[in-house]
Specification:
Strand content: under 5%
Oligomer: single chain
Distance between the termini: 32 Å
Radius of gyration: 18 Å
Number of helices: 4
Shape: elongated
Amino acid sequence: MAFRTLHGSRPVRTRFWAEVALGTLSGLLFLATLIRPTWIELVFGVDPDAGSGAAEWLIVAITALVTAVCALGARLEWRRTHPAAAHSPR
């Protein structure tokens, strides 16, 4: 399924929407872990790192990486569908 862009030039592929959704989800998880690192213990009732905080920092690093990769992928996909916008002056 593809949606038309604003000017109807090329369709936006499902990949774009998947990258936006995954990037948003991982960004929210990133923020939640930064704000409340003990959410894992609260939600699942387990302490995977025995209180050291290593699991929380691993989640922060992984979700930050996933968010950045998804944002870059979505940007590239958007520019594929809007080639004129990629070179217009701002």
